[in-house]
Model the fold of this input.
Amino acid sequence: MRSAGVSLVQRFWQAIGVVALALAVSCTSAAATSRIKDLANIEGVRQNQLIGYGLVVGLNGTGDTLNNIPFTKQSLQAMLERMGVNIRGATIRTGNVAAVMVTGNLPAFATQGTRMDVTVSAMGDAKNLQGGTLLVTPLLGADGNVYAVAQGSLAIGGFQAEGDAAKITRGVPTVGRIANGAIVEREIEFALNRMPNARLALRNADFTTAKRIAAAINDYLGSKTAEPIDPSTVQLSIPKEFKGNVVALLTEIEQLQIEPDLAAKIIIDERSGIIVMGRDVRVATVAVAQGNLTVTISESPQVSQPNPLSRGRTAVTPNSRIGVTEDGKKLAVVKDGVSLQQLVDGLNALGIGPRDLIGILQAIKAAGAIQADIEVM
Done:
């Protein structure tokens, strides 16, 4: 009876172990997948950049110098004339006005009356935009039409303070932001629900990823609806049951999980010494050694003085010492087909820094022993 009880307990714990292992495997595989929503964009669903020119007023003497910035003076005169104030020929010496460029992104499907954020940047020699107010500024699109109008008080992320002999600047006080500072006046028509087909634009172009996205969509819908047409585009024909309701179809498709495939690539930023290696980087069997050669030259000239009351001259005899020191590391063998972690461990065993590691990776690539693209930023 006791042995039977132990057997049941062992089977129970074995079952628990199998379940735990299955959960661990499922969690690991789930962690390697991503939603289609995070891998691709719907073609046509996009933002549009807007730009405008305007004036910021209310500055505490930190605006443009009108004698040095002619476009600020002309804009101020034109604005006052529209208000019925004629100042032609008058001398203007105010320092409370600054000419600025206003930029913003018009959201997709933005309707009339909705608001958007804008960024305000000084154009002239204004020192600080803190406390300023942007006057009504039309924002134009690439086609020259006005799509929004901006106005409001600026929020500045930096500041500037100065005295007679010292000055301190934190951040950029000549750039500000107005939250919900623009009102959309014109809509961009885009009939999404009446589209006969849709296109998914991959954020990282890849043949395998595009094929996996199309296969996942077809498996979910039960028909051959999606087809990859190039590494960055998947063509999607709208099924009959979703005609006139493309939003519902895209909502379902966006949540599908796939495992994206990435090319083996090494990114190197030589300015900062940053190295980023993909998980699929592989190398052939190579031996790597790294060392520094230091040459030291020291001069200690010797002076020879003549005897007293003699007709000799003071002579200087050069005395040079040259030393050569070679600080070399032992050869480290990087085995064939190692993983990224093993490659990193093998290179770290040499005790080198990022700068030397960049040279080693480039040398391994030149030897044809690394299966990855090296991109230098």
Q: What stands out?
A: The radius of gyration is 35 Å. The longest strand covers residues 48-57. Residues 48-83+94-184 form one domain.
